[in-house]
Amino acid sequence: MTTSDQLASVRYLVDDVQAAVDFYTAHFGFVVNVQSPAFADVTRGPLRLLLSGPPSSGAIATPAEFIAAGRNRIHLVVEDLDAEIDRLRTAGLSFRSDVVAGPGGRQILLTDPAGNLIELFQPAQR
């Protein structure tokens, strides 16, 4: 069991650790805690993102049918979705979906260099 002051950790399998680190630090403000050619540990607020390259134990232990970038995604809350979309498009990033609006807010999907999904989400005004 974790305590409320611990970070929430997510592991993403990536084919190029350096490219993933560059992507998350440059575009989303993650900070590098640990990095090697096979693995990196980066954080943003309470989210700890573990980036595991092909030679890492995290990637080696993954069954083959689950290796592909997947259906799960990290969810980053933003204050101004349109401004974030403009900023990231200007930086050369492309999106995997159009903006979707629902009762809880608006969201858009993009991927990291390995194809892992990232959701940018702006909550609805209450």
Structure overview:
This protein has one domain (8-123): 2,3-Dihydroxybiphenyl 1,2-Dioxygenase, domain 1. Helices cover 21% and strands 36% of the residues. The strands form two sheets. A four-stranded mixed beta sheet has the order 1-4-3-2. A four-stranded mixed beta sheet has the order 5-8-7-6, with helices on one face. The protein has three helices and eight strands. The chain has helices spanning 17-28, 57-60, 81-90; strands spanning 8-13, 31-35, 39-44, 47-52, 73-77, 100-102, 105-111, 117-123. It is of the alpha/beta class and 126 residues long. It holds the Pfam family Glyoxalase. InterPro entries: Anthracycline_SecMetBiosynth, Glyas_Bleomycin-R_OHBP_Dase, Glyas_Fos-R_dOase_dom, VOC_core. This is VOC family protein.
Sum this structure up briefly:
The chain has 126 residues and is of the alpha/beta class. 21% of the residues lie in helices and 36% in strands. It has a single domain, classed as 2,3-Dihydroxybiphenyl 1,2-Dioxygenase, domain 1 (Roll).
Q: Keyphrases for this structure?
A:
3 helices, 2,3-Dihydroxybiphenyl 1,2-Dioxygenase, domain 1, globular, four-stranded mixed beta sheet, 21% helix, 126 residues, alpha/beta, single chain
Radius of gyration: 15 Å
Supply the number of helical segments. Answer: 3
Biggest pleated sheet: 4 strands, mixed
Number of strands: 8
Order of helices and strands: EHEEEHEHEEE
Spans with pLDDT under 50 lasting ≥5 residues? none
Distance between the first and last residues' Cα = 33 Å
CATH fold-type name: 2,3-Dihydroxybiphenyl 1,2-Dioxygenase, domain 1
Could you say what the CATH architecture is? Roll
Determine and state the CATH class.
Alpha Beta
User: Can you identify the CATH superfamily?
Assistant: 2,3-Dihydroxybiphenyl 1,2-Dioxygenase, domain 1
